[in-house]
Write a structure and sequence with these properties.
The chain has 333 residues and is α+β, with helices and mostly antiparallel strands. It has a single domain, classed as HIT-like (HIT family, subunit A, 2-Layer Sandwich), CATH 3.30.428.10. The protein contains six helices and 15 strands. Strands 3-4-7-9-8-13-14-12-11-10 form a ten-stranded antiparallel beta sheet, sandwiched between helices. A three-stranded mixed beta sheet has the order 1-2-15. A hairpin with a 6-residue loop joins strand 1 and strand 2. Helix 1 crosses helix 4. The chain is globular.
Length: 333
């Protein structure tokens, strides 16, 4: 019998299609294969083909030269631009303003053929330190209200270049989807004086059925109302509402947790394309007792179609309990 489950944070409903449950081998997959051989602006020696770097970790060389282990550069074709004023206007009942913001690319390694799943732990940790540094720098611009940090891995997930990279977009508004998560978390805190994400972790540890991996600093789960098969949440066990406020042990352990989870996804699902998103509190907000930053990781196994667009419901053909078990059986726990 199918189940309709409610996300405890946002109130979003999800259909878990238990009567047509699908195993990893049932999905039509397009494994991400790095082809190489083409000109790549992210490879060492091509630094002048990107905008000048705003941050780099390097072992040798000077700015915009080879010798780096990680670079952050403005996106050459940005969705938003830092320069200018908002110039807010109304056109009758419509509102608009200039596209003020920032759009940057984190080139995670000089190795064209590497991915987060096979990079050394310290190099993966450096990706999160670089994001932290950019969050803190962009926060100084009081026009910026929210930063979305995300990774599109593979063409099916929206990546236009195969050289492994992440992106961040700083926005002058807090996105509606983020507001829904914040409002749901706030309502729960007002009722119970506890963080809903901390309570979710306590319950998931007690039941164990949706737990994928536990460390001293992180809990990895397939969420109760997962929208997609093998959707994963990576939750820090210490309460931080802002990603950029996390401490050194948390970032250090994240450098191990992320590639470990990605390797098991690669093993179980044959190197799928995926999206990863950091959910964090708005930049200019103080530390929030009711919100908890986390990472969402979504392998690209199904497509959003008419029913989802028309209702806001998602149909997930693989119960999260089964997804978690497949990953645990693959050797994560």
């Amino acid at each position: 019998m199918p189940e309709i489950r409610k996300d405890p944070v946002t109130g979003r409903w999800v259909i878990i299609a238990t009567d047509r449950s699908r195993r990893p081998s049932d999905f039509s997959r397009q494994p991400v294969v790095l082809k190489g051989g083409r000109f790549c602006p992210f490879c060492p020696g091509n630094e002048q083909k990107t905008p000048p770097e705003v941050l780099a970790f390097r072992q040798s060389g000077g700015p915009n030269e080879p010798g780096w282990t990680l670079r952050v550069v403005p996106n050459k074709f940005p969705a938003l631009r830092v320069e200018g004023d908002f110039d807010r206007q109304g056109e009758g009942l419509y509102d608009k303003m200039n596209g003020i913001g920032a759009h940057e690319v984190i080139i995670e390694t000089p190795d064209h053929n590497a991915t987060l799943s096979d990079m050394p732990e310290k190099r993966v940790e450096d990706v999160f330190w670089a994001l932290r540094d950019r969050f803190q720098d962009l926060k100084k611009d009081r026009r910026m209200r929210y930063i979305l940090a995300f990774k599109n891995h593979g063409e099916a997930a929206g990546a236009s270049l195969e050289h492994t990279h992440s992106q961040l977009i700083a926005l002058p508004v807090v996105p509606r989807r983020v507001q829904e998560e914040l409002e749901g978390s706030r309502r729960y805190y007002e009722m119970k004086e506890r963080c809903i994400f901390c309570d979710i972790m306590r319950q998931e540890i007690n039941t164990g059925t949706r737990v994928v991996l536990e460390t001293d600093y992180f809990l990895v789960i397939c969420p109760y109302a997962a929208r997609f098969p093998f959707e994963i949440w990576i939750l820090p066990r210490r309460h931080f509402s802002h990603f950029e406020h996390s401490d050194v042990p948390t970032f250090r352990n994240l450098g191990w947790v992320v590639p470990t989870v990605l390797r098991e996804i690669d093993n179980v699902l044959e190197r799928p394309a995926y999206n990863a998103i950091i959910h964090t509190a708005p930049l200019q907000d103080p530390e929030l007792l009711y919100y908890h930053w986390h990472i969402e990781l979504i392998p690209k196994l199904t497509k959003v179609a008419g029913f989802e667009w028309g209702t806001g419901f998602y149909i997930n053909p693989t119960p999260p309990e089964e997804s978690a078990k497949f990953l645990r059986d693959a050797g994560l726990a």
